[in-house]
Design a protein that fits this description.
The protein has 254 residues and is α/β, with parallel strands linked by helices. It contains 7 helices and 11 strands. It has helices at residues 20-34, 63-75, 93-98, 129-139, 141-148, 152-168, 185-196, and strands at residues 3-7, 38-43, 78-82, 101-103, 107-111, 114-119, 202-205, 211-215, 221-225, 233-237, 242-246. The protein starts with a strand and ends in an 8-residue tail after the last strand.
């Protein structure tokens, strides 16, 4: 039985990350190291810091990453790509050219006999009205049409600059620390969800950029994946055991 892998939040192309080419190569080396062990890989959002597909144009760069996704897909590895809040505007390019399975909503699925709820995590349980407004704006078909009318030379610059500004607003460019079970939005959302869906075994999210692993009931376990900017963290499920790990160059990966 082959492994199933989960990772998120690489933010490839971010103007706030130094040595972006090295950053991409590190992710590609990881994917290459697991290609013969993987039955499926779930990328739970924000793999790009900004992504927009025009009708005849896709963003410059990312050729190593996109090539590796295509290679793995051609080998028969299932690649599931979830849109996050930075790569909302993925349409059909990744599916048609790279062979990924695109998800724009949370997914409940069965893997090796266990029930999983998988999502990027943005907007789940977050009461911030400003964030909700921006999220609705970015999902608007009208806004997408208007954005498409801007020349890619300027629209891509605008998107990447917006994403950089959002990250640099944080203290020392760091994620807010874990706030505890009674304040973390994803934890509160999941606890409430379990009340009506007690059959879910695993909840796995990205978005938060910190590692969280909580047993919320006798059956249900919740995991937040961390990121691929500083932690290089991921989760492996082998059909019996679920464990978190971090990619370290030169070490054999489980």
């Amino acid at each position: 039985m082959k492994n199933v892998y989960f990772l998120s939040d690489a933010h490839l192309g971010s103007l706030a990350i130094d040595h972006s080419r090295m950053h991409e190569r590190r992710l590609v080396r990881f994917l290459d190291s697991i290609k013969n062990k993987a039955a499926a890989i779930y990328l739970l959002g924000d793999m790009f810091d900004f992504w927009y597909e025009f009708k005849y144009v896709v963003p410059r760069g990312y050729t190593r990453f996109l090539g590796k996704l295509s290679e793995l897909s051609d080998m028969g590895v299932e690649i599931h790509y979830f849109t996050g809040n930075h790569d909302i505007w993925a349409f059909d390019y990744l599916e048609k050219e790279c062979g990924v399975i695109l998800h724009k909503q949370p997914l409940t699925t069965e893997i090796y006999g266990k029930i999983f709820l998988l999502a990027h995590g943005d907007g789940l349980g977050d009461p911030d009205k400003k964030f909700k407004f921006l999220r609705a704006l970015f999902h608007s078909k009208v806004c997408q049409f208007l954005f498409s009318s801007i020349h890619p030379r300027w629209s891509m610059w605008l998107g990447l600059t917006w994403a950089k500004h959002s990250r640099m607003k944080r203290n020392n460019n760091e994620e807010p620390p874990y706030m505890g079970e009674n304040r973390e939005h994803l934890v509160l959302y999941t606890k409430e969800y379990i009340k009506t869906h007690p059959d879910v075994d695993y909840f796995i999210y990205g978005h938060r950029h910190i590692e969280i692993d909580l047993q919320l009931s006798r059956k249900s376990r919740m995991i937040v994946l961390g990121d691929w900017i500083t932690q290089f963290s991921y989760v492996v499920y082998d059909g019996e055991h679920m464990f978190m790990s971090e990619y370290i160059e030169g070490e054999s990966q489980p």
